[in-house]
Amino acid sequence: MPSKAYWANRANQRMDDYVLQSEQTADEIARAYYKASKQIESEMIKTIQGLSALSDNQTAIRALKNDPDAKAVKRLQKALATLPDGPEKQEALTMLASPAYQFRLRRLQETLNNAQKECERLYKAELKETTSHLKRMYNSAFSHTIYDIDRGYNTLHTFSLFPASRVNKLLKSKWSGMNYSSRIWGNTQSLADSLKEQLLVSFMTGASTSETARALQSQFETSAYAARRLVRTETNYIANQAELDSYKRLGIEEYQYIATLDTRTSELCQKLDGRVFNVDDAKPGLNLPPMHPNCRSTTIMYDAEEPIKERIARDENGKPIYVPGNMKYSEWLEKYHPELVDYARSDETFYIVPPPKGDAIKAQNIYKGLQKSEIGKSVYKYIIENNVPVEINYTSDAPEGVRGYCGANSIFVYAVNTKTVKLTVETIIHEVTHMKYNIRGSQWAEAHCFAAEALHTKNSLTISDKRDIIKKVKKLYSDLDWR
């Protein structure tokens, strides 16, 4: 009979396969998000260009005759009617009576409605893709786990897959407070609300098409990352539930928690690595993966008479190595990567999607790059203390000249544009400065962020340095006001 290392290694190999499949599904969903973003952006541009053509009331009156939707105007008239009489109310009513203003409101309402419909279509597409993937994942994980155990013991179990009702029950489970379909709906509705708010602000303030397009893209990228994280986490949940069901089918009473031995493993999984639990007591988030979003941990059957002699791990280059089976994560890190003890606790913050072979932009290099200056260290500290996910993405279509952006609570870097560790680190410093001080949407804000980048390579800035930064900002962000 093969040693227990066989099962530990097979469990890790299965999880690697699950992760790969989840990334492929997430890529499909990301393409749907990109398509939806381009559809809304196209409509937004047409709307703004159409409104700019309303040079006089006669043009607006002709447009109004072809526009039957007066809901937006009526709602505002009703709201204004509740205000106390006075010059401000009269001025608002007079403006509202203007044909050009009425047409602007109705066209805005139409654009907002279409944004909502696009997000609802996105919800259906994401739900369909995710559901199909999770159903395949359950059946694959269940059958492959039994196959691996049979192969290890040189036995043969005849079994049938669990009925569809079992899979559907898992899909409806609110194991983390909400089931996955509700989370998808929540994510897409949040996106719809954010898009409508952004469009409303852009229309009312007269923002340019390029400025509005950047803001909309930021909203979509943030939501696409949330979708990817959801797929990864739900894949881990379904796969581990399927493996647990295989243990029950074979009469196995205990399982052992197996964390991935590399520098991206979370603190939660580090502490659980190697611990043994009763199958009947398994509970995701407590003693069974997933323990957190993006979790990669798994389990193996436990046999007290045949302890694990060896298990697979990864070295600093990501290559597989074999270590003693009873070695805990903390022992492995202390022995093989003492310089990464502190770093490993937060390395999961930097997620690379996915780096080409031999590429220098790796989480470890980003960490080292940030440690080269006081401002870099403070940025890293802010990321860790505020649990800010940083995605270094090679797969997204990157706008020309755009290195990254700051979402509501995440940082996104276009690796195809940054290309080097140095520029990637500077981009992270730039975007974290936006987030940390909540400064955006002006040349002044961009100047502060470029100054932070410069302070990463020099201790102080001269008057000449500051002038150069201001000149650069005014050229790059000519569509923004100074303050």
The number of helical segments is: 17
The level of helicity is 55-70%
Structural category is alpha/beta
Secondary structure tally: strands? 9
Element string (H = helix, E = strand) = HHHHHHHHEHEEEEHHEHHEEEHHHH
User: What proportion of the residues form beta strands (DSSP E)?
Assistant: 5-15%
Span between termini: 72 Å
Overall shape: it is: globular
Largest sheet features? 4 strands, mixed
Mean of residue pLDDT values: 80
Radius of gyration: 27 Å
The strand order across the widest sheet is: 6-7-9-8
Low-confidence stretches: 53-70
Write structural notes for this entry.
The chain is α/β, with parallel strands linked by helices and 483 residues long. Helix content is 61%, strand content 8%. A four-stranded mixed sheet has the order 6-7-9-8, with helices on both faces. The chain has a three-stranded antiparallel sheet with strand order 2-1-3. It has a two-stranded antiparallel ribbon with strand order 4-5. A hairpin with a 4-residue loop joins strand 8 and strand 9 (411-414). Helix 5 (99-153) runs parallel beside helix 8, helix 7 (180-205) runs antiparallel to helix 8 (209-249) and helix 16 crosses helix 17 (463-476). It is globular and about 85 Å long. The N and C termini lie far apart (72 Å). 37% of the residues are buried. Mean pLDDT is 80; it is low at 53-70.
